[in-house]
Description:
A: 11 helices; B: 250 residues
Amino acid sequence: MKSEAPAREPHAAAGIDVTLTGVARRYRGRRGAELTAVEELDLTVGAVEVVGVVGPSGCGKSTLLELIAGLQEPDAGAIAVGPASSGAERLAACALMPQRDLLLPWRDALGNAALALEAQGIRSAAARERAEPLFERFGLAEFERSRPAELSGGMRQRVAFIRTLLPDRPVLLLDEPFAALDAITRAEMQQWLADALASEPRTVVLVTHDVEEALFLCDRVAVLSPRPGRVVTQLDVPLPRPRDRRAAIVDPELARLRARALAALDASGERRP
Amino acid sequence: MRRLALTVALLAACVALWAWLASLDSVDDLTLASPREVAQAFDDDWSLLWENAWVTLQEVLLGLAIAVVAGVAFAVGMHLSRTLRDAAYPLLVGSQAIPIVVLAPIFVLAFDYGIGPKLAIVALICFFPITVNVLDGLRAVDAEQLKLMRSFGASRLRTLRAVELPAALPSFFSGLRVAATVSVIGAVFGEWAGSDAGLGRLVLLGNNQLQTPRVYAGIVLLTLMAVALFALASLAERLVCPWNRKDAPT
Protein backbone atom coordinates (compact mmCIF):
# COMPACT_ATOMS: atom_id res chain seq x y z
CA MET A 1 0.00 0.00 0.00
CA LYS A 2 1.25 3.43 -0.90
CA SER A 3 0.99 6.00 1.85
CA GLU A 4 -0.09 8.81 -0.45
CA ALA A 5 -3.41 8.85 -2.20
CA PRO A 6 -3.10 7.98 -5.89
CA ALA A 7 -2.57 11.06 -8.00
CA ARG A 8 -5.65 12.18 -9.92
CA GLU A 9 -5.38 13.78 -13.30
CA PRO A 10 -5.86 17.53 -13.00
CA HIS A 11 -7.47 17.97 -16.43
CA ALA A 12 -10.71 16.42 -15.24
CA ALA A 13 -11.49 19.30 -12.95
CA ALA A 14 -10.52 21.91 -15.56
CA GLY A 15 -13.13 20.48 -17.91
CA ILE A 16 -13.67 20.59 -21.64
CA ASP A 17 -16.73 21.38 -23.70
CA VAL A 18 -18.78 19.29 -26.11
CA THR A 19 -20.20 20.69 -29.34
CA LEU A 20 -22.54 19.01 -31.81
CA THR A 21 -23.29 20.83 -35.05
CA GLY A 22 -25.93 19.69 -37.54
CA VAL A 23 -25.49 16.07 -36.52
CA ALA A 24 -27.49 13.34 -38.29
CA ARG A 25 -27.39 9.61 -37.80
CA ARG A 26 -29.28 7.11 -39.94
CA TYR A 27 -29.69 3.36 -39.54
CA ARG A 28 -30.57 0.63 -41.91
CA GLY A 29 -33.68 -0.84 -40.26
CA ARG A 30 -34.59 -4.52 -40.06
CA ARG A 31 -36.63 -4.54 -43.23
CA GLY A 32 -34.19 -2.44 -45.15
CA ALA A 33 -36.03 0.81 -44.47
CA GLU A 34 -33.85 3.70 -43.45
CA LEU A 35 -34.39 5.04 -39.94
CA THR A 36 -33.19 8.48 -38.98
CA ALA A 37 -32.30 8.50 -35.30
CA VAL A 38 -31.22 12.13 -35.00
CA GLU A 39 -31.17 14.94 -37.54
CA GLU A 40 -30.00 18.55 -37.63
CA LEU A 41 -29.02 18.20 -34.02
CA ASP A 42 -27.18 21.14 -32.46
CA LEU A 43 -26.11 21.01 -28.83
CA THR A 44 -23.37 22.69 -26.85
CA VAL A 45 -22.28 21.64 -23.39
CA GLY A 46 -19.88 24.00 -21.66
CA ALA A 47 -16.91 22.88 -19.57
CA VAL A 48 -18.07 21.39 -16.24
CA GLU A 49 -21.65 22.09 -17.21
CA VAL A 50 -24.35 19.49 -16.53
CA VAL A 51 -26.83 19.29 -19.40
CA GLY A 52 -29.91 17.09 -19.34
CA VAL A 53 -31.43 15.64 -22.49
CA VAL A 54 -35.09 14.64 -22.23
CA GLY A 55 -37.36 13.30 -24.92
CA PRO A 56 -39.92 10.64 -25.76
CA SER A 57 -38.78 7.02 -25.97
CA GLY A 58 -37.02 6.20 -29.19
CA CYS A 59 -36.02 9.77 -29.97
CA GLY A 60 -32.37 8.83 -30.31
CA LYS A 61 -31.20 9.81 -26.83
CA SER A 62 -28.92 6.80 -26.43
CA THR A 63 -27.66 7.26 -29.99
CA LEU A 64 -26.76 10.81 -29.09
CA LEU A 65 -24.53 9.61 -26.24
CA GLU A 66 -22.87 6.96 -28.36
CA LEU A 67 -22.20 9.57 -31.02
CA ILE A 68 -20.53 11.87 -28.52
CA ALA A 69 -18.58 8.96 -27.03
CA GLY A 70 -17.17 8.02 -30.42
CA LEU A 71 -18.84 4.61 -30.45
CA GLN A 72 -20.72 5.77 -33.55
CA GLU A 73 -19.88 8.24 -36.26
CA PRO A 74 -22.43 10.79 -37.50
CA ASP A 75 -23.63 10.57 -41.11
CA ALA A 76 -23.66 14.36 -41.28
CA GLY A 77 -22.49 17.23 -39.12
CA ALA A 78 -19.57 17.47 -36.69
CA ILE A 79 -18.93 16.51 -33.09
CA ALA A 80 -16.15 17.98 -31.00
CA VAL A 81 -15.18 16.94 -27.50
CA GLY A 82 -12.75 19.67 -26.48
CA PRO A 83 -10.11 19.71 -29.21
CA ALA A 84 -10.95 16.12 -30.21
CA SER A 85 -13.10 15.40 -33.23
CA SER A 86 -12.14 11.89 -34.40
CA GLY A 87 -13.99 8.91 -32.93
CA ALA A 88 -10.94 7.46 -31.18
CA GLU A 89 -10.05 10.81 -29.61
CA ARG A 90 -13.62 11.35 -28.41
CA LEU A 91 -13.61 7.84 -26.96
CA ALA A 92 -10.53 8.72 -24.93
CA ALA A 93 -12.18 11.84 -23.50
CA CYS A 94 -15.56 10.37 -22.55
CA ALA A 95 -16.78 7.93 -19.93
CA LEU A 96 -20.13 6.28 -20.58
CA MET A 97 -22.48 5.06 -17.85
CA PRO A 98 -25.06 2.75 -19.38
CA GLN A 99 -28.69 2.35 -18.39
CA ARG A 100 -28.13 -1.04 -16.80
CA ASP A 101 -25.26 -1.34 -14.35
CA LEU A 102 -23.68 -4.20 -16.39
CA LEU A 103 -21.63 -5.28 -13.38
CA LEU A 104 -19.84 -8.58 -13.92
CA PRO A 105 -21.34 -11.13 -11.52
CA TRP A 106 -18.05 -12.94 -10.94
CA ARG A 107 -16.19 -9.83 -9.82
CA ASP A 108 -16.65 -8.24 -6.42
CA ALA A 109 -17.73 -4.60 -6.22
CA LEU A 110 -14.17 -3.30 -6.10
CA GLY A 111 -13.16 -5.46 -9.06
CA ASN A 112 -16.11 -4.15 -11.05
CA ALA A 113 -15.26 -0.54 -10.27
CA ALA A 114 -11.66 -1.22 -11.30
CA LEU A 115 -12.70 -2.72 -14.65
CA ALA A 116 -12.45 0.53 -16.61
CA LEU A 117 -8.89 1.03 -15.39
CA GLU A 118 -7.96 -2.58 -16.12
CA ALA A 119 -9.36 -2.13 -19.61
CA GLN A 120 -6.60 0.43 -20.17
CA GLY A 121 -3.95 -2.04 -19.11
CA ILE A 122 -3.54 -1.08 -15.46
CA ARG A 123 -2.80 -4.15 -13.34
CA SER A 124 -5.68 -5.47 -11.27
CA ALA A 125 -4.12 -4.82 -7.86
CA ALA A 126 -3.20 -1.23 -8.75
CA ALA A 127 -6.65 -0.59 -10.24
CA ARG A 128 -8.37 -1.90 -7.10
CA GLU A 129 -6.14 0.29 -4.96
CA ARG A 130 -7.23 3.35 -6.90
CA ALA A 131 -10.91 2.40 -6.64
CA GLU A 132 -10.85 1.86 -2.89
CA PRO A 133 -10.92 5.49 -1.65
CA LEU A 134 -13.98 6.20 -3.83
CA PHE A 135 -15.92 3.45 -2.08
CA GLU A 136 -15.39 5.23 1.19
CA ARG A 137 -16.37 8.59 -0.28
CA PHE A 138 -19.49 7.37 -2.03
CA GLY A 139 -20.99 5.46 0.86
CA LEU A 140 -19.94 1.96 -0.14
CA ALA A 141 -17.30 1.33 2.54
CA GLU A 142 -17.32 -2.31 3.68
CA PHE A 143 -19.06 -3.41 0.49
CA GLU A 144 -15.82 -3.66 -1.51
CA ARG A 145 -15.83 -7.47 -1.43
CA SER A 146 -19.55 -7.94 -2.04
CA ARG A 147 -20.62 -9.49 -5.30
CA PRO A 148 -23.18 -7.55 -7.37
CA ALA A 149 -25.91 -10.08 -6.47
CA GLU A 150 -25.47 -9.10 -2.83
CA LEU A 151 -25.91 -5.38 -3.46
CA SER A 152 -29.10 -3.35 -3.74
CA GLY A 153 -30.02 -1.67 -7.02
CA GLY A 154 -28.90 1.72 -5.74
CA MET A 155 -25.56 0.35 -4.56
CA ARG A 156 -24.97 -1.32 -7.90
CA GLN A 157 -25.55 1.99 -9.69
CA ARG A 158 -23.07 3.63 -7.33
CA VAL A 159 -20.45 1.00 -8.17
CA ALA A 160 -21.18 1.62 -11.86
CA PHE A 161 -20.75 5.35 -11.29
CA ILE A 162 -17.38 4.84 -9.57
CA ARG A 163 -16.36 2.67 -12.51
CA THR A 164 -17.30 5.56 -14.83
CA LEU A 165 -15.45 8.11 -12.72
CA LEU A 166 -12.18 6.23 -12.18
CA PRO A 167 -10.54 6.66 -15.59
CA ASP A 168 -10.63 10.44 -14.98
CA ARG A 169 -12.19 11.28 -18.31
CA PRO A 170 -13.31 14.92 -18.47
CA VAL A 171 -16.75 14.13 -19.98
CA LEU A 172 -19.34 11.89 -18.35
CA LEU A 173 -22.20 10.55 -20.46
CA LEU A 174 -24.98 9.17 -18.27
CA ASP A 175 -27.67 7.15 -20.02
CA GLU A 176 -30.81 7.01 -17.84
CA PRO A 177 -28.69 5.89 -14.91
CA PHE A 178 -31.62 5.45 -12.53
CA ALA A 179 -34.34 4.21 -14.86
CA ALA A 180 -34.22 0.68 -13.47
CA LEU A 181 -34.57 1.74 -9.82
CA ASP A 182 -37.71 1.97 -7.71
CA ALA A 183 -39.05 5.46 -7.00
CA ILE A 184 -37.67 5.82 -3.47
CA THR A 185 -34.21 4.57 -4.36
CA ARG A 186 -34.24 6.75 -7.46
CA ALA A 187 -34.92 9.85 -5.36
CA GLU A 188 -32.06 8.95 -3.01
CA MET A 189 -29.72 8.31 -5.91
CA GLN A 190 -30.57 11.62 -7.56
CA GLN A 191 -29.54 13.45 -4.40
CA TRP A 192 -26.46 11.27 -4.20
CA LEU A 193 -25.50 12.04 -7.80
CA ALA A 194 -26.08 15.78 -7.27
CA ASP A 195 -23.61 15.72 -4.37
CA ALA A 196 -21.18 13.44 -6.20
CA LEU A 197 -21.06 15.77 -9.21
CA ALA A 198 -20.43 18.70 -6.87
CA SER A 199 -17.37 16.94 -5.46
CA GLU A 200 -16.19 15.60 -8.85
CA PRO A 201 -17.02 18.38 -11.31
CA ARG A 202 -17.13 17.12 -14.91
CA THR A 203 -18.76 18.01 -18.15
CA VAL A 204 -21.91 15.91 -18.03
CA VAL A 205 -24.59 14.91 -20.52
CA LEU A 206 -27.44 13.22 -18.68
CA VAL A 207 -30.03 11.46 -20.79
CA THR A 208 -33.31 10.74 -19.03
CA HIS A 209 -37.02 10.46 -19.70
CA ASP A 210 -37.71 11.99 -16.30
CA VAL A 211 -38.14 15.78 -16.61
CA GLU A 212 -37.95 16.32 -12.86
CA GLU A 213 -34.72 14.36 -12.62
CA ALA A 214 -33.20 16.45 -15.39
CA LEU A 215 -34.31 19.75 -13.84
CA PHE A 216 -33.07 18.73 -10.40
CA LEU A 217 -29.60 17.63 -11.55
CA CYS A 218 -28.77 19.88 -14.50
CA ASP A 219 -27.73 23.44 -15.30
CA ARG A 220 -29.65 23.26 -18.54
CA VAL A 221 -32.20 20.89 -20.03
CA ALA A 222 -32.55 20.22 -23.77
CA VAL A 223 -35.88 18.82 -24.96
CA LEU A 224 -35.68 16.50 -27.98
CA SER A 225 -38.43 15.86 -30.51
CA PRO A 226 -39.57 12.33 -31.38
CA ARG A 227 -37.51 10.53 -34.02
CA PRO A 228 -35.72 11.97 -35.86
CA GLY A 229 -34.53 13.65 -32.67
CA ARG A 230 -33.55 17.30 -32.68
CA VAL A 231 -33.41 19.93 -29.97
CA VAL A 232 -36.76 21.73 -29.84
CA THR A 233 -36.09 23.88 -26.80
CA GLN A 234 -33.54 24.45 -24.08
CA LEU A 235 -34.33 25.52 -20.52
CA ASP A 236 -31.78 27.09 -18.19
CA VAL A 237 -32.13 26.11 -14.55
CA PRO A 238 -30.98 29.22 -12.67
CA LEU A 239 -30.40 27.55 -9.29
CA PRO A 240 -26.97 26.79 -7.83
CA ARG A 241 -25.86 23.15 -7.66
CA PRO A 242 -25.90 20.88 -5.73
CA ARG A 243 -29.55 21.32 -4.93
CA ASP A 244 -31.52 19.75 -2.16
CA ARG A 245 -34.27 17.42 -3.27
CA ARG A 246 -36.77 18.36 -0.63
CA ALA A 247 -36.34 22.06 -1.39
CA ALA A 248 -36.39 21.42 -5.14
CA ILE A 249 -39.76 19.67 -5.02
CA VAL A 250 -41.48 22.78 -3.69
CA ASP A 251 -39.37 25.31 -5.59
CA PRO A 252 -41.74 27.50 -7.68
CA GLU A 253 -39.06 28.20 -10.32
CA LEU A 254 -38.51 24.48 -10.91
CA ALA A 255 -42.26 23.88 -11.03
CA ARG A 256 -42.58 26.56 -13.73
CA LEU A 257 -39.69 25.05 -15.73
CA ARG A 258 -41.25 21.62 -15.38
CA ALA A 259 -44.50 22.87 -16.86
CA ARG A 260 -42.60 24.47 -19.75
CA ALA A 261 -40.58 21.30 -20.42
CA LEU A 262 -43.67 19.11 -20.41
CA ALA A 263 -45.46 21.56 -22.71
CA ALA A 264 -42.50 21.46 -25.10
CA LEU A 265 -42.54 17.66 -25.06
CA ASP A 266 -46.28 17.63 -25.75
CA ALA A 267 -46.03 20.17 -28.53
CA SER A 268 -43.15 18.35 -30.22
CA GLY A 269 -44.60 14.89 -30.08
CA GLU A 270 -48.38 15.12 -29.76
CA ARG A 271 -47.89 12.53 -27.02
CA ARG A 272 -46.46 12.25 -23.53
CA PRO A 273 -43.10 10.46 -23.16
CA MET B 1 -31.25 -34.43 1.08
CA ARG B 2 -34.81 -35.32 0.13
CA ARG B 3 -33.79 -35.54 -3.52
CA LEU B 4 -30.95 -37.92 -2.66
CA ALA B 5 -33.32 -40.14 -0.64
CA LEU B 6 -35.75 -40.28 -3.56
CA THR B 7 -32.99 -41.21 -5.99
CA VAL B 8 -31.70 -43.93 -3.68
CA ALA B 9 -35.23 -45.30 -3.23
CA LEU B 10 -35.78 -45.42 -7.02
CA LEU B 11 -32.42 -47.10 -7.50
CA ALA B 12 -33.28 -49.70 -4.84
CA ALA B 13 -36.60 -50.35 -6.56
CA CYS B 14 -34.80 -50.90 -9.89
CA VAL B 15 -32.34 -53.32 -8.28
CA ALA B 16 -35.23 -55.20 -6.67
CA LEU B 17 -37.00 -55.43 -10.03
CA TRP B 18 -33.75 -56.64 -11.58
CA ALA B 19 -33.35 -59.32 -8.86
CA TRP B 20 -36.91 -60.46 -9.37
CA LEU B 21 -36.52 -60.68 -13.18
CA ALA B 22 -33.27 -62.63 -12.78
CA SER B 23 -34.96 -65.09 -10.44
CA LEU B 24 -37.65 -65.99 -13.01
CA ASP B 25 -37.16 -69.40 -14.56
CA SER B 26 -38.07 -68.12 -17.98
CA VAL B 27 -35.07 -65.73 -18.01
CA ASP B 28 -31.81 -67.31 -19.14
CA ASP B 29 -28.98 -66.96 -16.59
CA LEU B 30 -26.57 -66.20 -19.44
CA THR B 31 -28.63 -63.19 -20.49
CA LEU B 32 -29.24 -61.71 -17.10
CA ALA B 33 -27.05 -62.11 -14.03
CA SER B 34 -28.72 -61.46 -10.70
CA PRO B 35 -27.51 -58.60 -8.49
CA ARG B 36 -26.07 -61.16 -6.10
CA GLU B 37 -24.02 -62.80 -8.87
CA VAL B 38 -22.74 -59.41 -9.96
CA ALA B 39 -21.73 -58.61 -6.38
CA GLN B 40 -19.97 -61.96 -6.28
CA ALA B 41 -18.16 -61.08 -9.52
CA PHE B 42 -16.97 -57.84 -7.95
CA ASP B 43 -15.63 -59.86 -5.03
CA ASP B 44 -13.95 -62.54 -7.16
CA ASP B 45 -12.58 -60.40 -9.98
CA TRP B 46 -11.83 -57.26 -8.03
CA SER B 47 -8.22 -56.84 -9.10
CA LEU B 48 -9.04 -57.71 -12.71
CA LEU B 49 -11.88 -55.19 -12.79
CA TRP B 50 -9.84 -52.53 -11.08
CA GLU B 51 -6.83 -52.90 -13.39
CA ASN B 52 -9.00 -52.63 -16.47
CA ALA B 53 -11.04 -49.75 -15.02
CA TRP B 54 -7.81 -47.85 -14.45
CA VAL B 55 -6.83 -48.31 -18.10
CA THR B 56 -10.22 -47.05 -19.28
CA LEU B 57 -10.18 -44.15 -16.83
CA GLN B 58 -6.82 -43.02 -18.19
CA GLU B 59 -8.15 -43.13 -21.74
CA VAL B 60 -11.20 -41.13 -20.71
CA LEU B 61 -9.35 -38.48 -18.71
CA LEU B 62 -6.60 -37.93 -21.28
CA GLY B 63 -9.11 -37.91 -24.14
CA LEU B 64 -11.25 -35.38 -22.26
CA ALA B 65 -8.20 -33.21 -21.60
CA ILE B 66 -7.34 -33.18 -25.30
CA ALA B 67 -10.97 -32.34 -26.16
CA VAL B 68 -11.04 -29.48 -23.62
CA VAL B 69 -7.84 -27.88 -24.90
CA ALA B 70 -8.74 -28.31 -28.56
CA GLY B 71 -12.42 -27.44 -28.10
CA VAL B 72 -11.80 -24.23 -26.14
CA ALA B 73 -9.05 -23.14 -28.54
CA PHE B 74 -11.25 -23.83 -31.55
CA ALA B 75 -14.26 -22.06 -30.01
CA VAL B 76 -12.19 -18.97 -29.17
CA GLY B 77 -10.73 -19.00 -32.67
CA MET B 78 -14.18 -19.15 -34.24
CA HIS B 79 -15.38 -16.43 -31.89
CA LEU B 80 -12.57 -14.06 -32.80
CA SER B 81 -12.61 -14.75 -36.54
CA ARG B 82 -15.86 -14.50 -38.37
CA THR B 83 -14.21 -16.04 -41.43
CA LEU B 84 -13.11 -19.10 -39.49
CA ARG B 85 -16.57 -19.43 -37.95
CA ASP B 86 -18.39 -19.21 -41.25
CA ALA B 87 -16.03 -21.72 -42.83
CA ALA B 88 -15.67 -24.19 -39.99
CA TYR B 89 -19.03 -24.27 -38.22
CA PRO B 90 -20.91 -26.30 -40.85
CA LEU B 91 -17.99 -28.73 -40.99
CA LEU B 92 -18.03 -28.99 -37.20
CA VAL B 93 -21.71 -29.91 -37.23
CA GLY B 94 -21.10 -32.28 -40.14
CA SER B 95 -18.33 -34.02 -38.24
CA GLN B 96 -20.93 -35.07 -35.69
CA ALA B 97 -22.85 -36.94 -38.35
CA ILE B 98 -19.94 -39.36 -38.86
CA PRO B 99 -20.70 -42.50 -36.83
CA ILE B 100 -17.77 -42.77 -34.44
CA VAL B 101 -18.23 -46.54 -34.27
CA VAL B 102 -17.08 -46.96 -37.86
CA LEU B 103 -14.15 -44.62 -37.33
CA ALA B 104 -12.77 -46.68 -34.47
CA PRO B 105 -11.29 -49.53 -36.58
CA ILE B 106 -9.71 -46.96 -38.91
CA PHE B 107 -8.07 -45.23 -35.96
CA VAL B 108 -6.77 -48.56 -34.75
CA LEU B 109 -5.21 -49.13 -38.17
CA ALA B 110 -3.71 -45.67 -38.08
CA PHE B 111 -2.51 -45.53 -34.46
CA ASP B 112 -2.00 -49.20 -33.66
CA TYR B 113 -3.29 -51.02 -30.57
CA GLY B 114 -2.01 -48.61 -27.94
CA ILE B 115 -3.79 -45.76 -26.17
CA GLY B 116 -3.66 -43.58 -29.32
CA PRO B 117 -6.90 -44.62 -31.06
CA LYS B 118 -8.84 -44.54 -27.78
CA LEU B 119 -7.69 -40.99 -27.09
CA ALA B 120 -8.56 -39.98 -30.64
CA ILE B 121 -12.09 -41.35 -30.33
CA VAL B 122 -12.75 -39.99 -26.84
CA ALA B 123 -11.40 -36.59 -27.88
CA LEU B 124 -13.42 -36.58 -31.09
CA ILE B 125 -16.65 -37.47 -29.33
CA CYS B 126 -16.08 -34.89 -26.53
CA PHE B 127 -14.81 -32.12 -28.78
CA PHE B 128 -18.21 -31.22 -30.19
CA PRO B 129 -20.23 -30.51 -27.01
CA ILE B 130 -17.35 -28.52 -25.55
CA THR B 131 -16.72 -26.44 -28.68
CA VAL B 132 -20.37 -25.68 -29.33
CA ASN B 133 -21.13 -24.75 -25.73
CA VAL B 134 -18.07 -22.54 -25.32
CA LEU B 135 -18.81 -20.78 -28.60
CA ASP B 136 -22.43 -20.23 -27.54
CA GLY B 137 -21.26 -18.89 -24.18
CA LEU B 138 -18.82 -16.49 -25.81
CA ARG B 139 -21.43 -15.24 -28.25
CA ALA B 140 -24.13 -14.85 -25.59
CA VAL B 141 -22.30 -11.95 -23.93
CA ASP B 142 -24.50 -8.84 -23.79
CA ALA B 143 -23.75 -6.50 -26.70
CA GLU B 144 -24.06 -3.55 -24.29
CA GLN B 145 -21.34 -5.09 -22.14
CA LEU B 146 -19.00 -5.24 -25.13
CA LYS B 147 -19.87 -1.66 -26.04
CA LEU B 148 -19.03 -0.62 -22.49
CA MET B 149 -15.63 -2.32 -22.70
CA ARG B 150 -15.04 -0.55 -26.00
CA SER B 151 -15.91 2.77 -24.40
CA PHE B 152 -13.30 2.03 -21.71
CA GLY B 153 -10.76 1.65 -24.51
CA ALA B 154 -10.26 -2.07 -23.92
CA SER B 155 -8.48 -4.11 -26.60
CA ARG B 156 -10.18 -7.12 -28.16
CA LEU B 157 -8.00 -9.55 -26.20
CA ARG B 158 -8.53 -7.77 -22.90
CA THR B 159 -12.29 -7.84 -23.40
CA LEU B 160 -12.00 -11.54 -24.17
CA ARG B 161 -10.04 -12.19 -21.00
CA ALA B 162 -11.92 -9.92 -18.61
CA VAL B 163 -15.48 -10.38 -19.86
CA GLU B 164 -16.13 -13.02 -22.49
CA LEU B 165 -14.10 -15.96 -21.19
CA PRO B 166 -15.42 -15.73 -17.61
CA ALA B 167 -18.95 -15.25 -18.97
CA ALA B 168 -18.57 -18.43 -21.04
CA LEU B 169 -17.43 -20.55 -18.08
CA PRO B 170 -20.91 -21.86 -17.14
CA SER B 171 -21.47 -22.86 -20.79
CA PHE B 172 -18.09 -24.54 -20.83
CA PHE B 173 -19.09 -26.62 -17.83
CA SER B 174 -22.39 -27.55 -19.47
CA GLY B 175 -20.39 -28.85 -22.40
CA LEU B 176 -17.96 -30.59 -20.09
CA ARG B 177 -20.80 -32.38 -18.30
CA VAL B 178 -22.16 -33.73 -21.57
CA ALA B 179 -18.64 -34.62 -22.72
CA ALA B 180 -17.92 -36.42 -19.45
CA THR B 181 -20.89 -38.76 -19.90
CA VAL B 182 -20.18 -39.57 -23.55
CA SER B 183 -16.43 -39.89 -23.04
CA VAL B 184 -16.86 -43.33 -21.45
CA ILE B 185 -18.83 -44.53 -24.48
CA GLY B 186 -15.99 -43.32 -26.69
CA ALA B 187 -13.42 -45.25 -24.70
CA VAL B 188 -15.50 -48.45 -24.91
CA PHE B 189 -15.83 -48.11 -28.71
CA GLY B 190 -12.11 -47.57 -28.94
CA GLU B 191 -11.40 -50.69 -26.94
CA TRP B 192 -13.86 -52.78 -28.93
CA ALA B 193 -12.08 -51.89 -32.14
CA GLY B 194 -8.90 -53.36 -30.81
CA SER B 195 -7.09 -53.34 -27.49
CA ASP B 196 -5.45 -55.58 -24.94
CA ALA B 197 -6.83 -53.96 -21.79
CA GLY B 198 -9.71 -51.85 -20.49
CA LEU B 199 -13.24 -52.31 -19.19
CA GLY B 200 -14.74 -52.24 -22.68
CA ARG B 201 -12.48 -55.08 -23.76
CA LEU B 202 -13.25 -56.96 -20.52
CA VAL B 203 -16.98 -56.67 -21.18
CA LEU B 204 -16.58 -57.85 -24.78
CA LEU B 205 -14.36 -60.72 -23.71
CA GLY B 206 -16.68 -61.70 -20.86
CA ASN B 207 -19.55 -61.79 -23.31
CA ASN B 208 -17.67 -64.21 -25.56
CA GLN B 209 -16.63 -66.35 -22.62
CA LEU B 210 -20.19 -66.49 -21.24
CA GLN B 211 -19.06 -64.81 -17.99
CA THR B 212 -22.29 -62.86 -17.65
CA PRO B 213 -21.79 -61.62 -14.04
CA ARG B 214 -18.40 -60.15 -14.98
CA VAL B 215 -19.96 -58.39 -17.98
CA TYR B 216 -22.55 -56.81 -15.71
CA ALA B 217 -19.90 -55.84 -13.19
CA GLY B 218 -17.99 -54.11 -15.98
CA ILE B 219 -21.11 -52.27 -17.11
CA VAL B 220 -21.79 -51.12 -13.55
CA LEU B 221 -18.23 -49.79 -13.27
CA LEU B 222 -18.47 -47.97 -16.61
CA THR B 223 -21.74 -46.38 -15.52
CA LEU B 224 -20.29 -45.33 -12.18
CA MET B 225 -17.32 -43.84 -14.00
CA ALA B 226 -19.55 -41.71 -16.23
CA VAL B 227 -21.73 -40.60 -13.31
CA ALA B 228 -18.66 -39.77 -11.22
CA LEU B 229 -17.18 -37.69 -14.05
CA PHE B 230 -20.49 -35.86 -14.46
CA ALA B 231 -20.60 -35.18 -10.72
CA LEU B 232 -16.99 -33.98 -10.75
CA ALA B 233 -17.74 -31.58 -13.60
CA SER B 234 -20.76 -30.25 -11.67
CA LEU B 235 -18.70 -29.85 -8.52
CA ALA B 236 -15.98 -28.03 -10.44
CA GLU B 237 -18.60 -25.68 -11.85
CA ARG B 238 -19.92 -24.88 -8.39
CA LEU B 239 -16.40 -24.14 -7.17
CA VAL B 240 -15.26 -22.17 -10.21
CA CYS B 241 -18.50 -20.27 -10.93
CA PRO B 242 -20.06 -19.62 -7.52
CA TRP B 243 -21.94 -16.63 -9.00
CA ASN B 244 -23.84 -18.91 -11.31
CA ARG B 245 -25.45 -21.03 -8.61
CA LYS B 246 -29.15 -21.50 -9.19
CA ASP B 247 -29.77 -21.04 -5.45
CA ALA B 248 -27.72 -17.84 -5.26
CA PRO B 249 -29.55 -14.80 -3.87
CA THR B 250 -30.77 -12.55 -6.63
